[in-house]
């Protein structure tokens, strides 16, 4: 339950504090303007004064979900967030591995990516690029959609020896729906059966017109195996990013999006987040969805502990009160009490929503009986 001082309530009602004190006195509640009253009393007062403003509004308790923009002069260039999409086995993870000089594919169960991996690379020109490697398996359509929402650019991987497959089309549709620019990476060109030209032609059927077909979608032939064309792919991403003029304010409390989260046996709830703006620091208190927490540790994509993470950086966050959902926004708040208050408020809201839905369900149940 929320408490509010008499003066604060008076301010909100545009009434004199003394008048509220008088009214309270008449209601057998002798208080001063600086004392707090509970929600029910506040409501009584509001009614007494003939105002319609009931309940301390949600916006005062919750954190504004509408993103107010940071002032122009505080914005700095930020790395692009690139999501790699494409059909199963077309080489998304291999491409990612080749770009960052790692080998994730080998460690995967059955070579199938089960979650969204988030990595950042630094190019030869010292440009940072954040990559999200989304699963290509049909069962993960949902996650792929989430991947598209935090993304600036999509790299659509198509195996030159296979062609346009169901999940290639799905990826195209998701990308278009999200309004995100696309770069086509025609992979596995080292294979003898590779036929990149045929891929370009087939893409036309899905209204993807690549540059080589006189369109404006950049296309690059690559091989994750031999490393051919990787520089060109990086270049294409750089070019696209430049056009987008991606910027964010680094020197403010962080706001980040949860990419994935799970309960880790040893470490407790862990979330991989992507910082949208601001800088996330160790010790920061935050709310994320209906959970609150305090950053106990930040771990980068190489498993190294870091002190802070700026815009576009993917980072693992430890110190959550529970497991949030992918897509939840993490917001840094001033203190733990505030974090808990907001999280609790959101949980209440979520419960209310569920109860509000129950009668409707009963109605339909009875309707079915008649
Ligand atoms: P999912 O995560 O299951 O969707 O697959 P993915 O798209 O990540 O494909 P992955 O990187 O696991 O590669 C699938 C297979 O293709 C592996 O056996 C890779 O070694 C192979 N492969 C990937 N890229 C190339 C390439 O450029 N050339 C050749 N010859 N093989 C490749
Ligand atoms: Mg993979």
UniProtKB/TrEMBL annotation:
Its annotated compartments are:
Cytoplasm
Provide the residue positions that the database annotates as binding GTP.
86-93, 133-137, 187-190
Q: Where is the Tr-type G domain?
A: 77-247
Signal peptide limits: none
| Domain of life, source organism | Bacteria
Role description: One of the essential components for the initiation of protein synthesis. Protects formylmethionyl-tRNA from spontaneous hydrolysis and promotes its binding to the 30S ribosomal subunits. Also involved in the hydrolysis of GTP during the formation of the 70S ribosomal complex.
Q: Which family, according to the similarity comment?
A: Belongs to the TRAFAC class translation factor GTPase superfamily. Classic translation factor GTPase family. IF-2 subfamily.
Q: Which protein, by its recorded name, is this?
A: Translation initiation factor IF-2
Q: Which organism is it from?
A: Croceibacterium mercuriale
Name the gene.
Answer: infB
């Amino acid at each position: 339950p929320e408490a509010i001082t008499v003066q604060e309530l008076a301010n909100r009602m545009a009434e004199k504090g003394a008048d509220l004190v008088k009214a309270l006195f008449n209601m057998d509640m002798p208080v001063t303007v600086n004392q707090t009253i509970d929600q029910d009393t506040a409501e009584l007062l509001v009614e007494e004064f003939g105002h319609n403003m009931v309940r301390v509004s949600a916006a005062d308790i919750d954190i504004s979900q509408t993103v107010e923009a940071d002032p122009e002069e505080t914005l700095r260039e930020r790395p692009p967030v690139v999501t790699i999409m494409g059909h199963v086995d077309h080489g998304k993870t291999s491409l990612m591995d080749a770009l960052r000089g790692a080998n994730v594919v080998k460690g995967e169960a059955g070579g199938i990516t089960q979650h969204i991996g988030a990595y950042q690379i630094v190019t030869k020109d010292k440009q940072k690029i954040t990559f999200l490697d989304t699963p290509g398996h049909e069962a993960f359509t949902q996650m792929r959609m989430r991947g598209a929402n935090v993304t600036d650019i999509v790299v659509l991987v198509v195996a030159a020896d296979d062609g346009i497959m169901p999940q290639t089309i799905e990826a195209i549709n998701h990308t278009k729906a999200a309004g995100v620019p696309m770069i086509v990476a025609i992979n596995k060109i080292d294979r003898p059966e590779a036929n990149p030209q045929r891929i370009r032609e087939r893409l036309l059927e899905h209204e993807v017109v690549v540059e080589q077909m006189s369109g404006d979608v950049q296309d690059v032939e690559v091989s994750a195996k031999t490393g051919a064309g990787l520089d060109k792919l990086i270049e294409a991403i750089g070019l696209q990013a430049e056009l987008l003029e991606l910027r964010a304010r680094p020197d403010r409390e962080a706001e980040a999006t949860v990419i994935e989260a799970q309960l880790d046996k040893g470490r407790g709830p862990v979330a991989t987040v992507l910082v949208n703006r601001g800088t996330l620091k160790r010790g920061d208190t935050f709310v994320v969805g209906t959970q609150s927490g305090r950053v106990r540790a930040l771990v980068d994509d190489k498993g190294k502990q870091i002190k802070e993470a700026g815009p576009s950086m993917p980072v693992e966050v430890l110190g959550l009160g529970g497991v949030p959902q992918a897509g939840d926004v993490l917001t840094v708040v001033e203190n733990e009490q505030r974090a808990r208050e907001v999280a609790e408020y959101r949980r209440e809201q979520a419960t209310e929503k569920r109860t509000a839905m129950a009668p409707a369900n009963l109605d339909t149940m009875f309707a079915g009986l008649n």
